[in-house]
Amino acid sequence: MEITNYVVLACILFAIGATTVLLRRNAIVVFMGVELMLNATNLAFVTFARIHGDLTGQVLAFFVMVVAAAEVVVGLAIIVTIFRTRRSASVDDVNLLHG
Amino acid sequence: MPEITAFEAPEIEWVALAPLLIVLGTGIVGVLVEAFVPARARRLTQIVLTLAALAGALVAVGVLWGMLQDTLTAQPGQEAALNPRVLGGTLFLTPFALGAQGIITILAILGVLVVADRTSTGEDAFAPTAAAVPGTHYEDLAREAGLRQTEIYPLLLFAAGGMMLFASTDDLIVMFIALEVLSLPLYVLCATARRRRLLSQEAAAKYFLLGAFASALFIFGVALIYGFGGMVVRGGNPDAIGVRLLEVSSASRNILSQGGSLPDGTAALYLAGVVLVVVGLLFKVGAVPFHAWTPDVYTGAPTPITGFMAAATKAAAVVALVQVLWRAGFGMAPDVVEQLQLAVVVIAVLTMAVGTVVGAVQTDVKRLLAYSSIAHAGFLVTGVVGFATVVDGGAAVSFVTPPEGQTIVAPDVIRGVLFYLLAYGVATVGAFGVVTLVRERSADGVILGEATDLAAWRGLGRRAPWLTAAFALFLLSMAGIPLTAGFVAKFGVFSAAVAAGYWWLAVLGVLASVVAVAFYVRVIVIMVMTPSNEETAAAAQGVVAVRDAGVPGSGAGLSGSGASGRGSADASAAPAGGAVEPAAPASGAVRTAAPEGGLATATVFGEEHEAKAEAAATDAVVVGSRGPAAVAVALCAAATLVLGLFPSLVLDLAEQATRYVP
Amino acid sequence: MNPYLPILILMGIGAVLALGGVGASAIIGPKRYNRAKLDAYECGIEPTPHALGGGRLPIKYYLVAMTFIVFDIEVVFLYPWAVDFTTLATFGLVAMFAFLALITVPFVYEWRRGGFDWV
Fold first, then answer.
1. Residue A59 belongs to domain spanning
2. Residue B108 included in any domain
3. Would A98 be classed as within a structural domain?
4. Which residues of chain A approach chain B closer than 8 Å at the C-beta?
5. How far is B489 from chain A (nearest CA, A)?
6. pLDDT number for residue B398
7. A48 confidence band (pLDDT: 50, 70, 90)
8. Which position has the higher pLDDT, B537 or A21?
9. Measured between alpha carbons, how far is B1 from A55 in angstroms, rounded to an integer?
10. What values do phi and psi take at B78, rounded to 5?
11. Does residue B544 lie in a domain region?
12. B561 neighbors B573 (Cβ within 8 angstroms)
């Protein structure tokens, strides 16, 4: 089996994640899409590490995981704040600033 | 599986890390201050600590600059004073990067001064506790208890430290981490406004969701570049394959210049990776089509934070953009680089167009400054298009394999971008600092939040002459009027575009500047030459008596009131206002007595727009600052004038940076 | 011996434990049913869906989750160091202790600010 299939899988996951960010209305689902994109990146890193016979890609995947976790903390804090104020997590409702 | 070789502890050049260590270390100390210092002393401790850290970092940058110049001009055989490549490129202190660190530190100091100001109302711009749900009793309790959200100071330090690292690294994964370190505190800081908390939280949510999306695009690009890098970097220690862009590009360039070709499909892999990374960077720069977050976030965030964000983030992002484009282009085939250059050109044109055209119809001061910020991003990207230029005896040639003995640098880009970032940053921090001091007043005299509607700024020149003069100076600098720093800055970036061969882009840039001048001067006209709303309202009541008195040419009366300026103008303004007011709804033609005929259309359009909005707009009130904001605004104004009159102070320093890679 | 046999045995033990536990409590346990016992359990709060717009979700769940994530990631970084401890010698020790000290700072901050009070 071609190892580049994993890279293709990573690209497909990335595309699904990007679609989720662009099309979904719930802020938490949008953020899940971002996490899916970051996980696709991890898969790409690990696959390329395997292709090159090098461990650096796995280390880089570690760093991406850490950053994703930090982003989750801050992002969910902001989403929870919006939810407590508005009782709704829909991104369409966040429209006081427009133009 | 690769062999695990014996571990060799790397050499760390601590001296090169000094500015970063000072800023980030003080951020950590700031968090400990938050934990242990009693609440009364916390704010002063944090402010002193933050300013001391940033000042120390600036001094460290200055010392490093000297050491770096010594190293770069050293004769072979002399010992190097400083190794610019720390940890193999994880921190790569080119003069360009060090200059960017210095600019970011300066802008951070000015930004923190504006943040630290509690105006004469006694309140700063930040909510007592950002976690309280707006409109609940908890919020009132927190305000009465005198809580203060002093965590903003360590957050500002972390953001500044992240920006400094973002601009000075060669390793893309470190750049990604620095991107998050600079962004996450800003996401939180956007949500901490005291007034209009719903807008503030909304701005934070938009910034976060879009910023996370852009970061994910960035890191996927890095993954693709890593894939490419592993295929071209051969030999040596296999464990050293990373995503250090210069290393990858040099390896690719070696293959290409020896006449070989890259393995199948890998050139496309590299290009795709670089494009994704550049997209992530353009989001931070605020360029079209990744600019949608800018107006909303700048408007909703607390104004001092907006000033800091607009100035310093853009500095870090543009510097990183230049570095990535240059280093990536170093390893690509010439035709691919030309395509990349073309994409950058298109983005520059679109950004300038959107920023100036949409900015011209804004009625909210912060939104107007946000769109002007987008326009400036466009001018900066115009300066960046020459990233792949080889200078051959003065005339630029396109990016080809350089002739023997020539190094590829982009001297005009480096010089232009550094100066523009300083001039634009200083004007932006100053402008937003002025906006923090112009407030609304409620019916019973209580000072509310910022008066962001332009209608409330009418006649501000009479009530606060120094503030209006400073704001006018910042707007003129942003417009690029001669004698201000903005003029020299625009000259620099446009000459960089011309040197790259894109003279038509520079012409477009000048045209966009002219359009931008229109809406900057419109704001100045509103502040200086328009009677304030109180005067027009009072005069409308006395209109019957006054009209019989036979007022001389109302245009003369208007310019008379504009010229007499300070204080005493009420008497002369009232009759002029009285004669003008009945005529205004019918046609703004009376105001065409204003000096430049070309401005008449802008003034008429503006007046009709505002007349539609509210018949009785209230006046803005200028609150005094308790010191820091006034100092910051004064420093920014002084810097704008000094850089405009004596630009060689900074241009000479920037010249030293042009001899080395960006 | 097939190298996958231990995994099969492990799956079998896991199934025995799970089914045995549920089955034993179903057979031997007392059968006194009331409404509260049949509800879904969600850490003591009202189970979802909440009353429309009125149900308040305690914010402490969020704090617990976020604290867990941050310190879990710290542990994630400790694992590779643990694997290669002797090779990394003094440099690794000093570097990791610096990392731990830096992580302890927000730990102290959260402690002093009452973030751990509910737990």
1. 4-90
2. yes
3. no
4. 7, 10, 14, 17-18, 21, 27, 30-31, 34, 37-38, 40-41, 44-45, 48, 51-57, 60, 63-64, 67, 70-71, 74-75, 77-79, 81-82, 84-85, 91, 94, 96-99
5. 30
6. 37
7. very high
8. A21
9. 9
10. -80, 155
11. no
12. yes
Q: Where are the domains of chain C?
A: 51-112
Chain A environment of C80 (Cβ under 8 Å)? 62
Q: Exposure pattern of C76-108 as b/e (b: 16+ CB <10 Å)?
A: ebeeeeeeeeeebeeebeeebeeeeeebebbbe
- 3-state secondary structure (DSSP) of residue B438: strand
Chain B CB within 8 Å of residue C111 CB: yes
Give the H or E element holding residue B621: strand B621-622
State how many domains chain B has. Answer: 1
In-domain check, residue A77:
yes
In DSSP terms, A90 is beta-bridged to A26
- How many domains are contained in chain A? 1
Mean pLDDT of chain B: 81
Number of C-alpha atoms within 13 angstroms, CB side, residue B262? Answer: 24
Rounded to an integer, what distance in angstroms lies between the CA atom of residue B554 and that of residue B590?
7
Whether A99 is covered by a domain: the verdict is no
Domain with B469 in it: 18-528+630-657
Alpha-carbon distance values, B36 to B32, B224, B502, C102 (Å): 6, 45, 57, 16
Q: Which residues on chain B are in Cβ contact (under 8 Å) with C114?
A: none
pLDDT in tens, B218-277: 999 999 999 998 888 765 455 566 788 888 887 887 787 777 777 777 888 999 999 999
Q: Is residue A67 part of a domain?
A: yes
Q: What is the pLDDT of residues C7-55, one digit of tens each?
A: 999 999 999 999 999 999 899 988 888 877 777 777 766 666 555 445 5
For the record, the structure tokens of B275 come out as 């494009």
Task: Out of A65, A73, A76, name the one closest to residue C70 (CB).
Answer: A73
Contacts 24+ apart (CB under 8 A), A50-54: A50/A3, A50/A6, A51/A3, A51/A4, A51/B227, A51/B230, A52/B230, A52/B231, A52/B238, A52/B241, A53/B1, A53/B2, A53/B238, A54/B2, A54/B230, A54/B238, A54/B239, A54/B241
A62 contacts in chain C (CB < 8 Å): 76-77, 80
Put simply, the answer to whether C113 touches B35 (Cβ < 8 Å) is yes
At A13, which CATH number? 1.10.287.3510
Three-state DSSP state, B116 = coil
Q: What is the pTM of this model?
A: 0.85
- Give the gyration radius of chain B's Cα atoms: 26
- CA B124 to mean position of chain CA atoms: 22
- Hey, which bits of B33-86 come out as E strands? 85-86
Which regions in chain B score pLDDT beneath 50?
A: 1, 236, 393-407, 548, 550-615
Pick C62's closest partner by Cβ from A70, A80, A87.
A80
- Of C66, C93, C67, the residue nearest C78 (C-alpha): C93
